Amino acid sequence: MVSKRSPESFSPPGFLVVEGPVGVGKTSLVRRLAEAFGGETLLEEAEENPFLDRFYRDRRQSAFPAQLFFLFQRSRQWNELQQGDMFRQRLIADFMLEKDRLFAEVNLEHEELLLYQQVYERLAMEAPKPDLVVYLQAPVETLMRRIRQRARPEEASMDPAYLQRLCDAYTDFFYHYDRSPLLIINAAEINPVESEADFQLLVEHICTADSGKRYLNPVPLLF
Fold this sequence. Notes:
Blueprint: E1 15-19, H1 26-37, E2 40-42, H2 52-57, H3 59-83, E3 91-93, H4 98-107, H5 110-123, E4 132-137, H6 140-150, H7 160-176, E5 182-186, H8 196-208, E6 213-216
Parallel strand pairs: 1-3, 1-4, 2-3, 4-5, 5-6
C-alpha cells in the first residue's frame, strides 16, 4: 500500500545521489525529487562534452578525450561546491564521482587507463560522502527503448552491447559498494517520474533508508 502522506511530511537525506546506466531516467528523477524536497540539483551536463557525439559514433577513437572532458568537468563542479556551502540547502545529484572511473575502466585501453589514473590522482578529488545513493536498474531492452523515445542525436548510434557492458559494470560496482546507504530500484517495474503512486512509494523508501543496502522491486499484479 502506498502512503497518502506528501513528500513534505518526510525528512529526506541532505545529500542524495541518483545513479544508473544511460537511459535509466536519473536526471528526470533528480529534478522531480529536488522539486518535491525543496533541494538544489547537481547535474552531469553531458551535453557540454564536445566529444560525446563522436564517442558514440566511434568509441575507440574518441573515448579518451571524452573521458578526460568529463573528469575535468566533474573536478570543476566539486571544487565549486567545496568553495561554497554545499549543504546550505539539500543537494540532489544525478552522478557520483566514482562513476567517472567506472566509465574509464569500461571505455579506455590499458595505456589510456593508466594515463587517466595519473590525471585523476593529480586532481586529488574527494567528493563528500552521500547520505544515500539510489541506484536505478533496468534491462538493456528497457534502456534502449527509453533512449529511442528521448531521441537525443548523440545517442542515435547507441550500441546495445556497449550498454550491456555498462550495466554489468554498474552491477559489479554496487555489489561491492558500502560507502553510503544504498537503495536499489527496479526501474523497469516502476516509473517514479511519470507515476505519482510510484513516486510516493520511492519517496517513502528514500526517507527511511538509513543504513546498509535495501531494495525496491515491486512485483507486477497479474489479473
